Amino acid sequence: MIDLRSDTVTKPCSGMRAAMNNAEVGDDVYGEDPTVNRLEALAADMTGMEAGLFCSSGTQSNLLALMSHCARGDEYIVGQQAHTYKYEAGGAAVLGSIQPQPLELEPDGTLDLARVERAIKPDDFHFARTRLLCLENTQGGKVLPMAYLEKAEAFARKKGLKFHLDGARIFNAAVKLGTTTKEIATHFDSVSICLSKGLGAPVGSVLCAGRSQITEARRWRKMLGGGMRQAGILAAAGIYALENNIQRLDQDHDNAARLEQGLAGINALEIAPGSVQTNMVFVRVKRRATALAGFMEKRGIVMDKGDDLRLVTHLNVSSKDIDTVITAFKEFYK
Ligand SMILES: *Cc1c(COP(=O)(O)O)cnc(C)c1O
Protein backbone atom coordinates (compact mmCIF):
# COMPACT_ATOMS: atom_id res chain seq x y z
CA MET A 1 0.00 0.00 0.00
CA ILE A 2 1.15 3.54 -0.82
CA ASP A 3 -0.81 5.86 1.46
CA LEU A 4 -0.65 9.51 0.39
CA ARG A 5 -3.49 10.84 2.57
CA SER A 6 -1.31 12.22 5.34
CA ASP A 7 2.04 11.93 7.11
CA THR A 8 0.07 10.80 10.17
CA VAL A 9 -0.25 7.29 8.67
CA THR A 10 3.43 6.50 9.27
CA LYS A 11 4.13 3.40 11.36
CA PRO A 12 6.89 2.98 13.95
CA CYS A 13 9.95 1.15 12.60
CA SER A 14 11.64 -1.71 14.46
CA GLY A 15 14.28 0.60 15.99
CA MET A 16 11.56 2.80 17.42
CA ARG A 17 9.65 -0.21 18.74
CA ALA A 18 12.83 -1.48 20.41
CA ALA A 19 13.30 1.91 22.08
CA MET A 20 9.72 1.73 23.35
CA ASN A 21 10.23 -1.80 24.60
CA ASN A 22 13.33 -0.79 26.53
CA ALA A 23 11.98 2.48 27.94
CA GLU A 24 12.47 3.17 31.62
CA VAL A 25 9.16 4.34 33.06
CA GLY A 26 7.58 5.84 36.17
CA ASP A 27 4.42 7.73 37.07
CA ASP A 28 4.54 10.92 35.02
CA VAL A 29 1.73 12.60 36.98
CA TYR A 30 4.20 12.48 39.89
CA GLY A 31 6.88 13.74 37.50
CA GLU A 32 8.69 10.41 37.92
CA ASP A 33 8.88 9.06 34.40
CA PRO A 34 12.53 9.48 33.38
CA THR A 35 11.83 8.96 29.69
CA VAL A 36 9.07 11.57 29.58
CA ASN A 37 11.36 13.97 31.44
CA ARG A 38 14.12 13.28 28.92
CA LEU A 39 11.77 13.91 25.96
CA GLU A 40 10.48 17.15 27.46
CA ALA A 41 14.03 18.38 28.10
CA LEU A 42 15.12 17.40 24.60
CA ALA A 43 12.19 19.16 22.93
CA ALA A 44 12.71 22.27 25.09
CA ASP A 45 16.38 22.31 24.13
CA MET A 46 15.64 21.89 20.43
CA THR A 47 13.20 24.80 20.49
CA GLY A 48 15.31 26.97 22.81
CA MET A 49 12.50 27.10 25.37
CA GLU A 50 12.77 26.68 29.16
CA ALA A 51 10.44 23.71 29.43
CA GLY A 52 8.39 21.13 27.56
CA LEU A 53 5.15 19.27 28.23
CA PHE A 54 4.41 15.89 26.66
CA CYS A 55 0.86 15.87 25.26
CA SER A 56 -1.30 13.18 23.74
CA SER A 57 -1.78 15.05 20.44
CA GLY A 58 -1.05 18.27 18.61
CA THR A 59 -4.63 19.32 19.20
CA GLN A 60 -4.09 19.03 22.95
CA SER A 61 -0.77 20.91 22.79
CA ASN A 62 -2.32 23.79 20.86
CA LEU A 63 -5.35 23.94 23.16
CA LEU A 64 -3.08 24.04 26.22
CA ALA A 65 -1.08 26.85 24.63
CA LEU A 66 -4.25 28.83 23.97
CA MET A 67 -5.64 28.18 27.45
CA SER A 68 -2.41 29.13 29.16
CA HIS A 69 -2.01 32.35 27.15
CA CYS A 70 -5.66 33.43 27.22
CA ALA A 71 -8.37 33.66 29.88
CA ARG A 72 -12.14 33.48 29.52
CA GLY A 73 -13.33 36.30 27.25
CA ASP A 74 -9.95 36.80 25.58
CA GLU A 75 -9.40 36.51 21.86
CA TYR A 76 -6.75 35.00 19.58
CA ILE A 77 -6.03 35.94 15.98
CA VAL A 78 -5.44 33.01 13.68
CA GLY A 79 -5.51 31.97 10.01
CA GLN A 80 -8.88 30.99 8.55
CA GLN A 81 -7.35 27.69 7.34
CA ALA A 82 -5.13 27.18 10.39
CA HIS A 83 -5.33 23.88 12.23
CA THR A 84 -5.79 25.58 15.62
CA TYR A 85 -8.89 27.32 14.30
CA LYS A 86 -10.45 25.03 11.73
CA TYR A 87 -9.43 21.48 12.55
CA GLU A 88 -9.52 21.27 16.34
CA ALA A 89 -13.28 20.99 16.84
CA GLY A 90 -13.61 24.52 18.17
CA GLY A 91 -11.77 23.56 21.37
CA ALA A 92 -10.56 27.10 22.13
CA ALA A 93 -14.15 28.37 22.20
CA VAL A 94 -15.73 25.29 23.76
CA LEU A 95 -13.18 24.45 26.45
CA GLY A 96 -11.26 27.70 26.80
CA SER A 97 -14.04 30.30 26.38
CA ILE A 98 -11.57 31.99 24.05
CA GLN A 99 -12.96 33.82 21.02
CA PRO A 100 -11.22 33.09 17.74
CA GLN A 101 -10.69 35.94 15.27
CA PRO A 102 -9.85 34.10 12.05
CA LEU A 103 -8.30 36.02 9.14
CA GLU A 104 -7.74 34.98 5.53
CA LEU A 105 -4.19 33.74 4.92
CA GLU A 106 -1.95 35.21 2.22
CA PRO A 107 -0.94 32.88 -0.65
CA ASP A 108 2.45 32.28 1.02
CA GLY A 109 0.85 31.04 4.26
CA THR A 110 1.50 34.21 6.27
CA LEU A 111 -1.01 36.53 7.92
CA ASP A 112 -0.80 40.09 6.62
CA LEU A 113 0.28 42.13 9.64
CA ALA A 114 -1.63 45.26 8.55
CA ARG A 115 -4.76 43.14 8.48
CA VAL A 116 -3.92 41.66 11.89
CA GLU A 117 -3.46 45.20 13.22
CA ARG A 118 -6.94 46.20 12.06
CA ALA A 119 -8.41 43.11 13.75
CA ILE A 120 -6.95 43.93 17.18
CA LYS A 121 -9.80 45.19 19.36
CA PRO A 122 -9.51 48.50 21.20
CA ASP A 123 -9.51 48.46 24.99
CA ASP A 124 -13.27 48.93 25.35
CA PHE A 125 -15.80 46.80 27.22
CA HIS A 126 -17.71 46.12 23.99
CA PHE A 127 -14.93 43.85 22.80
CA ALA A 128 -13.10 40.70 23.70
CA ARG A 129 -9.49 41.33 24.75
CA THR A 130 -7.10 40.47 21.93
CA ARG A 131 -4.30 38.52 23.60
CA LEU A 132 -2.61 36.18 21.21
CA LEU A 133 -1.39 35.83 17.65
CA CYS A 134 -1.13 32.31 16.31
CA LEU A 135 0.81 31.14 13.25
CA GLU A 136 1.44 27.74 11.68
CA ASN A 137 4.72 26.57 10.08
CA THR A 138 4.64 24.84 7.70
CA GLN A 139 1.23 26.22 6.74
CA GLY A 140 -0.37 23.97 4.12
CA GLY A 141 3.11 22.66 3.28
CA LYS A 142 4.49 26.19 2.86
CA VAL A 143 7.47 27.47 4.82
CA LEU A 144 6.99 30.88 6.42
CA PRO A 145 9.90 33.17 5.45
CA MET A 146 12.34 33.89 8.31
CA ALA A 147 12.18 37.64 7.58
CA TYR A 148 8.42 37.47 8.08
CA LEU A 149 8.79 35.69 11.43
CA GLU A 150 11.11 38.45 12.57
CA LYS A 151 8.60 41.13 11.57
CA ALA A 152 5.68 39.26 13.09
CA GLU A 153 7.54 38.84 16.38
CA ALA A 154 8.36 42.58 16.56
CA PHE A 155 4.74 43.35 15.70
CA ALA A 156 3.37 41.03 18.41
CA ARG A 157 5.73 42.52 21.02
CA LYS A 158 4.79 46.08 20.05
CA LYS A 159 1.09 45.26 20.30
CA GLY A 160 1.47 43.40 23.59
CA LEU A 161 0.28 40.12 22.07
CA LYS A 162 1.51 36.68 23.03
CA PHE A 163 2.83 34.71 20.05
CA HIS A 164 2.20 30.97 19.52
CA LEU A 165 3.43 28.70 16.75
CA ASP A 166 1.60 25.58 15.71
CA GLY A 167 4.80 23.79 14.75
CA ALA A 168 3.30 20.42 13.93
CA ARG A 169 5.65 20.45 10.90
CA ILE A 170 8.31 22.87 12.15
CA PHE A 171 10.95 20.22 11.33
CA ASN A 172 9.92 20.20 7.67
CA ALA A 173 10.31 23.98 7.67
CA ALA A 174 13.74 23.84 9.35
CA VAL A 175 15.06 21.13 7.02
CA LYS A 176 13.76 22.97 3.97
CA LEU A 177 15.44 26.22 5.05
CA GLY A 178 18.61 24.44 6.15
CA THR A 179 18.28 26.02 9.56
CA THR A 180 17.61 24.74 13.08
CA THR A 181 14.27 24.29 14.78
CA LYS A 182 15.52 26.71 17.42
CA GLU A 183 16.07 29.51 14.87
CA ILE A 184 12.40 29.30 13.94
CA ALA A 185 11.06 28.76 17.45
CA THR A 186 13.02 31.60 19.00
CA HIS A 187 10.53 34.16 17.65
CA PHE A 188 7.64 32.71 19.65
CA ASP A 189 6.46 32.53 23.26
CA SER A 190 5.31 28.95 22.77
CA VAL A 191 5.62 26.24 20.14
CA SER A 192 3.79 22.95 19.75
CA ILE A 193 5.61 20.18 17.88
CA CYS A 194 4.18 16.92 16.55
CA LEU A 195 5.98 13.61 16.90
CA SER A 196 3.38 11.60 15.03
CA LYS A 197 3.50 13.30 11.64
CA GLY A 198 6.51 12.89 9.37
CA LEU A 199 8.71 11.94 12.33
CA GLY A 200 6.95 8.60 12.54
CA ALA A 201 6.07 8.22 16.24
CA PRO A 202 2.73 6.53 16.98
CA VAL A 203 1.44 9.35 19.23
CA GLY A 204 2.48 12.53 20.88
CA SER A 205 3.29 16.17 20.77
CA VAL A 206 5.32 18.45 22.99
CA LEU A 207 4.32 21.98 23.99
CA CYS A 208 7.45 24.06 24.56
CA ALA A 209 7.41 27.42 26.33
CA GLY A 210 8.64 29.32 29.37
CA ARG A 211 8.60 27.53 32.71
CA SER A 212 5.65 29.39 34.26
CA GLN A 213 3.56 28.87 31.15
CA ILE A 214 4.28 25.13 31.16
CA THR A 215 3.27 24.96 34.84
CA GLU A 216 -0.06 26.54 33.90
CA ALA A 217 -0.47 24.24 30.86
CA ARG A 218 0.26 21.20 33.05
CA ARG A 219 -2.72 22.08 35.25
CA TRP A 220 -5.03 22.38 32.22
CA ARG A 221 -3.64 19.13 30.80
CA LYS A 222 -4.62 17.34 34.02
CA MET A 223 -8.10 18.89 33.83
CA LEU A 224 -8.52 17.74 30.24
CA GLY A 225 -7.66 14.17 31.22
CA GLY A 226 -4.22 14.33 29.64
CA GLY A 227 -2.17 13.39 32.71
CA MET A 228 -0.66 10.08 31.63
CA ARG A 229 1.13 7.64 33.91
CA GLN A 230 3.86 5.32 32.55
CA ALA A 231 3.96 7.39 29.38
CA GLY A 232 7.68 6.77 28.92
CA ILE A 233 6.81 3.97 26.51
CA LEU A 234 5.34 6.62 24.21
CA ALA A 235 7.97 9.24 25.01
CA ALA A 236 10.69 6.77 23.98
CA ALA A 237 9.19 6.72 20.49
CA GLY A 238 9.25 10.52 20.51
CA ILE A 239 12.92 10.65 21.50
CA TYR A 240 13.75 8.13 18.77
CA ALA A 241 11.81 10.28 16.27
CA LEU A 242 13.64 13.48 17.24
CA GLU A 243 17.03 11.79 17.18
CA ASN A 244 16.65 9.82 13.96
CA ASN A 245 13.92 11.10 11.70
CA ILE A 246 14.44 14.82 11.18
CA GLN A 247 17.24 15.02 8.62
CA ARG A 248 15.58 12.40 6.43
CA LEU A 249 12.60 14.72 5.88
CA ASP A 250 14.49 16.14 2.89
CA GLN A 251 13.82 12.80 1.14
CA ASP A 252 10.09 13.44 1.59
CA HIS A 253 10.56 16.92 0.13
CA ASP A 254 12.49 15.50 -2.84
CA ASN A 255 9.77 12.91 -3.36
CA ALA A 256 7.06 15.57 -3.32
CA ALA A 257 9.03 17.63 -5.86
CA ARG A 258 9.45 14.55 -8.08
CA LEU A 259 5.74 13.81 -7.80
CA GLU A 260 4.94 17.39 -8.83
CA GLN A 261 7.26 17.12 -11.85
CA GLY A 262 5.78 13.77 -12.83
CA LEU A 263 2.21 15.05 -12.70
CA ALA A 264 3.00 18.38 -14.38
CA GLY A 265 2.64 16.94 -17.88
CA ILE A 266 -0.90 15.66 -17.32
CA ASN A 267 -3.29 18.33 -18.55
CA ALA A 268 -6.27 17.12 -16.50
CA LEU A 269 -4.29 18.12 -13.41
CA GLU A 270 -3.35 21.54 -12.12
CA ILE A 271 -0.71 22.28 -9.50
CA ALA A 272 -0.29 25.88 -8.34
CA PRO A 273 3.22 27.07 -9.24
CA GLY A 274 5.50 27.31 -6.20
CA SER A 275 3.01 25.45 -4.01
CA VAL A 276 5.20 22.39 -3.47
CA GLN A 277 7.79 23.40 -0.90
CA THR A 278 7.95 20.50 1.54
CA ASN A 279 6.06 17.20 1.68
CA MET A 280 2.67 18.18 0.25
CA VAL A 281 1.44 18.34 -3.32
CA PHE A 282 -1.91 20.05 -3.85
CA VAL A 283 -3.56 18.94 -7.06
CA ARG A 284 -6.69 20.29 -8.69
CA VAL A 285 -8.34 17.50 -10.68
CA LYS A 286 -10.18 18.97 -13.67
CA ARG A 287 -11.52 15.75 -15.21
CA ARG A 288 -12.81 12.35 -14.02
CA ALA A 289 -12.16 13.08 -10.33
CA THR A 290 -14.83 10.63 -9.14
CA ALA A 291 -13.27 7.60 -10.82
CA LEU A 292 -9.68 8.48 -9.90
CA ALA A 293 -9.51 7.31 -6.27
CA GLY A 294 -11.07 3.92 -7.12
CA PHE A 295 -8.60 3.39 -9.98
CA MET A 296 -5.69 4.21 -7.67
CA GLU A 297 -6.95 2.00 -4.88
CA LYS A 298 -6.93 -1.01 -7.20
CA ARG A 299 -3.20 -0.31 -7.67
CA GLY A 300 -2.58 -0.13 -3.93
CA ILE A 301 -2.49 3.69 -3.83
CA VAL A 302 -4.63 5.33 -1.18
CA MET A 303 -5.52 9.00 -1.48
CA ASP A 304 -8.29 11.45 -0.69
CA LYS A 305 -11.33 11.58 -2.96
CA GLY A 306 -12.57 14.67 -4.73
CA ASP A 307 -11.30 17.31 -7.11
CA ASP A 308 -8.92 19.03 -4.68
CA LEU A 309 -6.28 16.51 -3.65
CA ARG A 310 -3.57 16.83 -1.04
CA LEU A 311 -0.89 14.21 -1.66
CA VAL A 312 1.52 13.85 1.25
CA THR A 313 4.91 12.16 1.19
CA HIS A 314 6.42 10.64 4.35
CA LEU A 315 8.81 8.00 5.66
CA ASN A 316 6.69 5.09 4.48
CA VAL A 317 6.64 6.36 0.87
CA SER A 318 9.79 5.54 -1.10
CA SER A 319 11.15 7.12 -4.23
CA LYS A 320 10.12 3.95 -6.11
CA ASP A 321 6.58 4.41 -4.78
CA ILE A 322 6.55 7.87 -6.35
CA ASP A 323 7.34 6.30 -9.74
CA THR A 324 4.46 3.88 -9.23
CA VAL A 325 2.08 6.75 -8.42
CA ILE A 326 3.16 8.84 -11.43
CA THR A 327 2.77 5.82 -13.73
CA ALA A 328 -0.73 5.14 -12.36
CA PHE A 329 -1.81 8.78 -12.92
CA LYS A 330 -0.45 8.66 -16.48
CA GLU A 331 -2.25 5.42 -17.17
CA PHE A 332 -5.54 6.81 -15.86
CA TYR A 333 -5.31 9.92 -18.05
CA LYS A 334 -3.76 8.32 -21.15
C1 LIG B 1 -1.82 17.28 12.69
C2 LIG B 1 -1.73 18.70 13.04
C3 LIG B 1 -1.96 19.13 14.35
C4 LIG B 1 -2.29 18.22 15.49
O1 LIG B 1 -3.10 17.19 15.15
P1 LIG B 1 -3.30 15.91 16.09
O2 LIG B 1 -3.91 14.96 15.14
O3 LIG B 1 -4.19 16.34 17.17
O4 LIG B 1 -1.98 15.48 16.59
C5 LIG B 1 -1.84 20.47 14.61
N1 LIG B 1 -1.51 21.34 13.65
C6 LIG B 1 -1.26 20.96 12.39
C7 LIG B 1 -0.87 21.98 11.38
C8 LIG B 1 -1.37 19.63 12.04
O5 LIG B 1 -1.13 19.26 10.78
Topology:
Blueprint (H helix, E strand, L loop, with lengths): L1 E2 L10 H8 L12 H14 L3 E5 L2 H12 L4 E6 L3 H4 L4 H6 L2 E5 L9 H7 L9 E8 L9 H13 L3 E6 L2 H8 L3 H5 L4 E5 L10 E5 L1 H13 L8 H13 L4 H16 L4 E2 L9 E6 L3 H10 L2 E2 L5 E5 L6 H14 L2
Parallel strand pairs: 1-11, 3-4, 3-5, 5-6, 6-7
Antiparallel strand pairs: 2-8, 7-8, 9-10, 10-12
Helix pairs in contact: 1-11, 2-11, 3-10, 12-14
Bound molecules: pyridoxal-5'-phosphate (PLP).
Description:
The protein is α/β, with parallel strands linked by helices and about 325 residues long. The chain has 2 domains: about 5-245, Type I PLP-dependent aspartate aminotransferase-like (Major domain) (Aspartate Aminotransferase, domain 2, 3-Layer(aba) Sandwich); about 250-330, Aspartate Aminotransferase, domain 1 (Alpha-Beta Complex), CATH 3.90.1150. It has 14 helices and 12 strands. The strands form 3 sheets. The protein has a 7-stranded mixed sheet with strand order 2-8-7-6-5-3-4, sandwiched between helices. Strands 9-10-12 form a 3-stranded antiparallel sheet. Strand 5 (about 130-135), helix 7 and strand 6 form a beta-alpha-beta unit. Helix 2 (about 35-45) packs parallel to helix 11 and helix 3 crosses helix 10 (about 210-225). The radius of gyration is 20 Å and the shape is globular. The chain binds pyridoxal-5'-phosphate. Pyridoxal-5'-phosphate (PLP) binds near residues 57, 59, 62, 168 and 205. Pyridoxal-5'-phosphate binds near residues 57, 62, 196 and 205.
